[in-house]
Write a structure and sequence with these properties.
The complex is a heterodimer of chains A (538) and B (528). Chain A is an all-alpha fold and 538 residues long. Helix content of chain A is 75%, strand content 1%. Chain A has a two-stranded antiparallel ribbon with strand order 1-2. Chain A is globular. Chain B is mainly alpha-helical and 528 residues long. Chain B has a domain of 209 residues. Chain B starts with a helix and ends with a helix. The chains are: A mainly alpha (538), B mainly alpha (528).
Chain lengths: 538, 528
């Protein structure tokens, strides 16, 4: 190939890729704009939160347009962009839209509660936007290198955001713990990537399963085959890195400390967005290695391993939350537990996809991804709602302890009812969205039980944990609703007609809508799932 | 009115009422809010009566079926309908809710919140009895928990928080098991369109095409535990005395009058038709649990000194008859034929009748305890006495309702118990004798309680000056309940005419489902 040809093909590739990368570019432009405005002093006139809101709004709109464009076509469209480093399909766009919307909501929340003061807000929003771009890259990665870059690009701003409350010892300590743990996990993951890439001779994720099949051909396909063994080891190490991001047991230690140290807004952002990105990546990575001839049983074992970790994670998260007195810490453990529920869907996906009957199970494979995506969407609203209530009440009481919420119903019924809706949704009670998400995930795990009986145990653990989790969520609600407000407690006068109430009520309405009318979101999630699950396999 | 629309109206009129109440009313104007809530429950009860008017007696199938797609990707439908099994319970719910609302004037704390939750609870209860889609059923089943938790937890007695969380945890544990069973049916339904359709699933099961026999045994256990907690049957009944004692009077009436019936309804609507082989497999266990509940509940009631706790344990005992009547299905395992099918149908009819009768008599008993508690603020059986002299009308009406609970011939409690005990004789005469002896114990604790409370020379407790006669509102509630107890005791056919065809067809479907599954088992054994 001539050099000019190479240049020309790169130019065409880039020009074709850039429109499909519009959302990320829009976010990047907003970052640059915010920093420039800071330099020129314009941010005194136009506050950074306004610029950030507009940027996030445009990004959400662009993501929606992209989704609409893909949705209009009947066939499943998958385009590789930037010479195959990223992939553009409904799944990518689903996550883009999801993350852009979440960014918008977080920006709205921070401007309501004023957590970054005006001086710091351009820095804060740059970090927030940078992390979001990283998460979008995670969800669209098609190359092991992009996988690593995405994870790092998410992590580094997150470390800074956790420590953003300068001068608070807890905050700095939390950030430091997060950095050290994160750096370790990143190193392990990079080693895993090098093993997988080294043995299979490619870092392109769409080629992995084909290469794996070639590597396994002739051998036993199990762990006795040295090449397969190395790939399995590499896969495991990559999963360690992702498990760190998902705060799965035993890689969860950073989570409660980081959440307690960070402000409630940041904790809310991290608990949903970074998990969403990591789940997008985990699904892509698992599917990339699935379906290779000869290694099916190995991959099923991986699925069961994930199922086992899911059981431990949910049980641990729920039990550890019992004794917490700090609400953010309590929700941190609840986040751990919910990551466990969601991993059940990935476990089911791996088991179903690699089963001998995979061809007849297409619908169920789609449904397992659909369940995960649906759960993520519900989780966005219910968890952000809970954190938003904490953040709003904190601005009045200067405390995030459970006790500071005693008898809040007498002063701010709106906040309390929103908290009630969010918490019952977190338990998984109908008619709230959490129930539908949970049912979808349990259903796919149950179906996977037909392939391997252990998945029935996973379902049993999931069901049992629903009962466990009720106790600590209801403890919070009991404090808010059934106890009397102490006379010396600071008043929380949040009225029904106020921006704060409007924000949390909107979130609660979505939680309810997702439970009562799940159809639209479930169909959208199913479309996204089809785009990714039906990639041709060798 | 279009009967299909009527069903949705019955479910959602209370919800709309609750919304209006929350949005339109000033929370200081409690009297107006109470009247509005009362009107809402009365309208709902009126709608259930209209449903009864439109209902065709003598047919067994589902009437007024409504089916609208709800979640197409998962084949979930908004499917409603009534048949002879659900109609009496829908009527009972409408009646007890209206009467309990009438008893709610004694609630003075946070009236608005109370009324909103009360109406939401009514919507949930109606939804459970009217839905024919498993998913929808489950949603309504859980929707009830939330208002109930707060109704006990905020407006209850001294140990309200403990009682509320215990009630919540027990029911949630049961419903999670039900959820797993729901998934079993979902993935084993022969046609994807009917995966949550209870009628279709029951039909498939009666042809032996739903679950394999061994799966049926597992699924039945999961469903049964979920429903037995609600029923409540020994040994998962322990939430009931706590919840009843702590709950305010109107909520006790709802709990005893309606919520407990959901356990029995779930067994007869879901567990038996969908897992006939499992039901037969566990018949002996269920009969034993039923008999233990009867005897244990009666003995426990004898030992109580708290008036409300006594009535609560009497509920355990009486609901034991329901379980016993449902379970007395005897088959000849050699050929799969039912032995004395008529007796099983009689047991089923008796159980259904007992549910309605208990709904009336126990709601009445709790109301009567509440009336006296509102006046003297204690419930210690040993510190009453002589009420007959001070409150003659109250004592007379109470006596009538307690006799209805006792099962005195001519009152509603008698019919159900007699039907159940007679049909048990066919199943096992030993257990029939044990169950019948429960009646003696029942008479024991009820007569003894009446003696301690109403008879005697003088009142021995605190606040004797507060023993004022019942007001009009209280009298009319008590009179309504007692009148119904007498009517159903004398003309049980009012209910049997509605129930019988549906129950007969349900039992026949279950029998054929059992035979199909039993044939599969024989085939499998032959292959081995």
């Amino acid at each position: 190939m001539l050099f000019t040809d190479l240049i020309n093909s790169l130019i065409t590739d880039t020009t074709q890729s850039i429109p499909r990368f519009g959302v990320e570019l829009c976010l990047s432009a907003t970052i640059v704009l915010m920093l420039l405005m800071r330099l020129s002093g314009l941010d005194r006139l136009i506050p950074a939160c306004l610029t950030a809101t507009v940027g996030a709004l445009v990004a959400t709109f662009l993501a929606y347009k992209q989704f609409d464009a893909l949705h209009a076509k009947d066939a499943v469209v998958t385009t590789h962009i930037f010479t195959g480093l990223l992939v553009h399909d409904s799944f990518t766009v689903f996550f883009r839209g999801f993350l852009a919307l979440f960014l918008l909501l977080t920006v709205a929340l921070t401007s309501l509660t004023g957590i970054p003061d005006e001086e710091d807000s351009p820095d804060f929003y740059s970090l927030l936007f940078g992390a979001t771009i990283g998460m979008m890259l995670m969800a669209s990665a098609n190359n092991l290198l992009m996988l690593f870059i995405g994870v790092e690009m998410t992590s580094v701003p997150s470390y800074a955001m956790v420590g953003f409350l300068k001068g608070r010892k807890v905050s700095s300590e939390a950030a430091l713990k997060y950095v050290v743990y994160g750096a370790g996990a990143a190193g392990v993951m990079l080693y895993g990537i090098s093993l997988v890439g080294g043995v299979l001779g490619t870092t392109d994720m769409s080629l992995l399963s084909q290469r794996l099949a070639e590597a396994a051909a002739g051998g036993s396909g199990g762990l006795k085959d040295p090449e397969v063994r190395t790939v399995a080891l590499g896969t495991m190490l990559v999963m360690v890195g992702l498990a760190f991001k998902l705060s799965l047991v035993p890689f969860h230690f950073w989570c409660p400390d980081a959440f307690e140290g960070a402000s409630a807004e940041v904790a809310g952002f991290l608990s949903v967005a970074s998990k969403a990105g990591a789940f997008g990546l985990l699904v892509r990575f698992c599917l990339a290695l699935s379906g290779a001839k000869g290694t099916e049983s190995l991959m099923i074992s991986f699925g069961l391993g994930l199922g086992f970790i899911a059981c431990i994670t949910t049980t641990f998260g729920n039990l550890a939350a019992y004794t917490q007195t700090n609400l953010k810490r309590l929700l941190a453990y609840s986040t751990i537990a919910h990551a466990g529920y969601m991993v059940m869907a990935v476990a089911a996906l791996l088991v179903l996809k690699n089963s001998p009957q995979a061809a007849t199970l297409t619908e169920n494979i789609n449904q397992s991804i659909e369940g995960l995506l649906y759960y993520l969407v519900v989780y966005l609203f219910m968890n952000l709602g809970a954190f938003a209530v904490i953040a709003i009440a904190r601005n009045y009481t200067f405390s995030e302890e459970v006790d500071s919420f005693k008898g809040l119903i007498s002063q701010s019924p709106t906040l309390c009812i929103v908290m009630l809706i969010c918490m019952f949704s977190l338990v998984g009670m109908p008619p709230f969205g959490g129930f539908v998400g949970k049912l979808f995930i349990f259903a796919s795990a149950f179906k996977a039980g037909e392939v391997h009986g252990f998945m029935y145990v996973v379902v049993a653990f999931g069901a049992l944990n629903t009962v466990f989790s009720l106790v600590y969520y209801i403890r919070v609600l009991r404090t808010m609703f059934l106890e009397a407000r102490p006379a010396d407690a600071r008043p929380v006068p949040v009225r029904l007609v106020s921006w704060e109430s409007a924000f949390v009520v909107t979130l609660a309405v979505f939680v309810l809508l997702l439970g009562v009318l799940p159809h639209m979101m479930s169909q959208t999630a199913n479309d996204a799932a089809q785009a990714i699950a039906q990639l041709p396999n060798p | 009115m279009n009967p299909e629309f009527l069903l949705s109206a019955i479910i959602f009129v209370p919800t709309i009422g609750a919304l209006l109440l929350a949005l339109l009313f000033d929370s200081k104007n409690s009297e107006a809010m109470r009247l509005f809530a009362m009107a809402t429950t009365l309208v709902t009860f009126g709608l259930t009566l209209m449903l009864w008017g439109d209902f065709q007696e003598g047919t067994s199938g589902i009437q007024f079926e409504v089916a609208k797609q709800w979640i197409p990707t998962w084949n979930v439908y908004y499917r409603l309908g009534v048949d002879g099994i659900s109609l009496p319970l829908v009527l009972l719910t409408g009646l007890v809710s209206a009467l309990a609302m009438g008893a709610s004037w004694s609630i003075t704390k946070h009236v608005k919140g109370y009324l909103v939750l009360f109406l939401m609870l009514e919507s949930g209860m109606m939804g459970v009895f009217l839905s024919l889609d498993f998913f929808l059923f489950y949603v309504f089943w859980e929707v009830m928990l939330l208002p109930m938790y707060f109704l006990i937890g905020v407006w209850g007695g001294p140990r309200k928080e403990y009682a509320a969380i215990k009630f919540f945890l027990y029911t949630l544990a049961g419903s999670v098991l039900m959820l797993v069973a729901m998934l079993m049916f979902y993935f084993n339904a022969p046609e994807p369109g009917g995966r949550f359709n209870l009628i279709y699933l029951a039909d498939a099961a009666s042809k032996g095409g739903l679950l394999s026999p061994s799966l049926q045994i597992t699924a039945f256990v999961m469903l049964f535990i979920g429903f037995a907690i609600k029923l409540p049957a020994f040994p998962v009944h322990t939430w009931l005395p706590d919840a009843h004692v702590e709950a305010p009077t109107p909520i006790s009436m709802i709990l005893a009058g309606v919520l407990l019936k959901m356990g029995g309804y779930g067994i007869i609507r879901i567990a038996f038709p969908l897992c006939p082989y499992g039901a037969q497999y566990w018949a002996w266990t269920m009969v034993a649990i039923g008999v233990i509940s009867i005897i244990y509940g009666a003995f426990a009631a004898l030992a109580q000194t708290d008036f409300k706790r006594l009535v609560a344990y009497s509920s355990v005992s009486h609901m034991g008859y329901v379980l016993l009547g449902l379970a007395v299905w005897k088959v000849n395992e050699a050929n799969g034929q039912s032995i004395g099918m008529d007796y099983w149908q009689m047991g089923l009819n008796g159980a259904m009748f007992q549910m309605i009768a208990h709904g009336i008599s126990s709601a009445g008993m709790f109301f009567m305890v509440g009336v006296i508690y509102d006046r003297v603020h204690h419930r210690d059986l040993n510190r009453f006495g002589g009420l007959m002299g001070k409150m003659p009308l109250y004592s007379g009406l109470s006596a009538g309702l307690f006799f209805a609970g006792l099962g005195l011939p001519g009152l509603c409690g008698f019919i159900g118990e007699v039907f159940v005990v007679l049909s048990t004789w066919n199943f096992s005469w030993v257990l029939a004798i044990v169950a019948a002896s429960g009646v003696i114990l029942t008479a024991g604790y009820i007569l003894w309680a009446m003696q301690r409370v109403y008879l005697g020379a003088e009142y021995r407790g605190p606040h004797p000056e507060d023993l004022t006669p019942m007001n009009m509102r209280e009298t009319s509630i008590a009179v309504t309940l007692l009148a119904l107890a007498i009517v159903f005791g004398i003309f049980p056919a009012i209910l049997f005419n509605i129930m019988e065809p549906s129950i007969t067809s349900m039992s026949k479907a279950a029998e054929s489902g059992y035979q199909q599954s039993a044939a599969q088992v024989t085939q499998l054994q032959a292959q081995r």
